[in-house]
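quick one
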Amino acid sequence: MSELWYTEKQTKNFGITLKVKQTLHTEQTDFQYLEMVETEEFGNMLFLDGMVMTSQKDEFVYHEMVAHVPLFTHPNPENVLVVGGGDGGVIREVLKHPQVKKATLVDIDGKVIEYSKKFLPEIAGKLDDPRVEVKVGDGFMHIAESENEYDVIMVDSTEPMGPAVNLFTKGFYAGIAKALKEDGVFVAQTDNPWFTPELITNVQRDVKEIFPITRLYTANIPTYPSGLWTFTIGSKKHDPLEVSEDRFHEIETKYYTKELHKACFVLPKFVSDLIKE
Ligand code: SAM
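structure w/ S-adenosylmethionine:
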């Protein structure tokens, strides 16, 4: 019986390949090529334009780290926005915070939401929670139309190409600052230091010009390019490294801990060199 493997080219010369059990769904949506594939090692996986978005086995790392670092940094995150995030994983983590009264998700592609609910129920299952409002639309436009509204904004978008190209611009980060309240916090996934070092450097530079507190943290995500993933946090007032012990209320996690909340900001030299002044 011949074997079927799915290869993601992470650069033109390097990639990962995953043994496929079955292809669950493929579709060219209005915005991207959507693939849902069941793999032997990582379970069901969502790919967009040939790039790994999430997998049943390792999704918790990214979703916990995008959500809990900013949500524990802000003292009272009641109104939260997720840009992108159509697989629902960040929203699931956001709802573990009792202070959150409303979580809005804005993803440009309703098909991602539809097929994540169908094939990734443990990731997308909270999108129908009463505290959640799901909007299908361009996150760039949503941010442009928002002012002084959110306590925490998380940008869980695809790579800076296709529909997400505007979501890594200084103008977008300025829009995020406007959409946040006066003590708001935002986080964006900012890819990896091995293959996209310049993205990390550029985003830090842009965010630093807008937010008084700007930091970079990392997490280990085996199915993402290089496995060493970064997140850029911008904050108007609250420092993620100054969170008092009493702030860390108990939540169920598999990767994030209050100790890791601080440790994830300790960077390897080749990474800290990317963002030094
Ligand atoms: N965690 C993944 C990562 O780090 O690459 C991202 C997963 S999530 C599925 C990415 C989402 O961003 C997709 O559902 C895509 O439709 C959405 N997206 C891309 N451009 C967007 C835009 N301009 N506005 C809103 N959502 C967008």
